[in-house]
Specification:
Blueprint lengths: L8 E4 L10 E5 L10 E4 L12 H12 L3 E10 L6 H18 L3 E6 L2 H11 L5 E3 L6 H9 L3 E5 L13 E4 L4
Parallel strand pairs: 1-2, 2-3, 3-4, 4-5, 5-6, 6-7, 7-8
C-alpha cells in the first residue's frame, strides 16, 4: 500500500509542483500529467452538477491504475456546491470502490457533510486510508473524525492551534 507520508505536500492543484517529486497534484480524469510527476485523480463534487459520463469514469479508472497515481480523489461531498446529494454519493462510492481495488488512499473533499462521510465509512469499511483534505475546524471535530477512522490533511501555511496524532496527519498546500 502507498504511504503518502513520503510527500511534503499530498494535495496541490498546480501541475508544475509535481516536477519537484515531493508533491501530489490533484487532477481531473483526462488531464495529462507531466512526465515524472505524481498525482491523484478524481471527480470533484463541484463537477457533479451534470452526471459524470462513462468516458470520465473510464479515464478515472485508467489514470488511477497508473503507477504515477498515488491516490484516488479528490472526491466527496459539498452541500453548498455541486450536483444533487444522491449523485455526489454515487460518484463518491465509485471512487471509494476504486481506491479499495487499487489499494490506494482516498483524498476527500467534504463541506458540511460529515454525516454523509461517516455513513460512507460505515457502508464501505475501508481498508485504505481515507484522508479528509483541507481540514480546518475545532479540536472536537478533528477528534471525532479521527475516531471514525479518517486521517486529515492540513494546509501547511495554516497549522492548527492544537495537537493531533502525526501518523494520521498529512501536509498539503491545496491552492495556496
Amino acid at each position: 500500500m502507498i504511504d503518502l507520508h513520503q510527500y511534503r505536500d499530498i494535495h496541490s492543484h498546480r501541475a508544475a509542483d509535481a516536477l519537484r517529486g515531493d508533491t501530489v497534484v490533484c487532477i481531473t480524469p483526462g488531464t495529462e500529467m507531466l512526465p515524472g510527476g505524481t498525482y491523484s485523480v478524481g471527480i470533484h463534487p463541484w463537477d457533479t452538477v451534470d452526471e459524470p459520463t462513462a468516458e470520465q469514469f473510464a479515464q478515472l479508472r485508467l489514470q488511477a491504475a497508473d503507477s504515477r497515481c498515488v491516490a484516488v480523489g479528490e472526491c466527496g461531498f459539498d452541500l453548498l456546491c455541486g450536483g444533487p446529494v444522491e449523485r455526489q454519493q454515487r460518484v463518491f462510492l465509485a471512487h471509494a470502490e476504486l481506491a479499495e481495488q487499487l489499494q490506494k488512499p482516498l483524498i476527500i473533499h467534504s463541506v458540511r457533510a460529515d454525516h454523509l462521510l461517516l455513513a460512507a465509512i460505515k457502508a464501505v469499511r475501508p481498508t485504505v486510508p481515507w484522508i479528509l483534505h483541507g481540514f480546518r475546524g475545532r479540536q472536537s471535530r478533528a477528534e471525532a473524525l479521527l475516531r471514525a477512522g479518517l486521517s486529515l490533511s492540513i494546509n501547511a501555511a495554516r497549522p492548527l492551534p492544537y495537537p493531533l496524532p502525526a501518523p494520521r496527519l498529512y501536509p498539503e498546500t491545496d491552492a495556496q
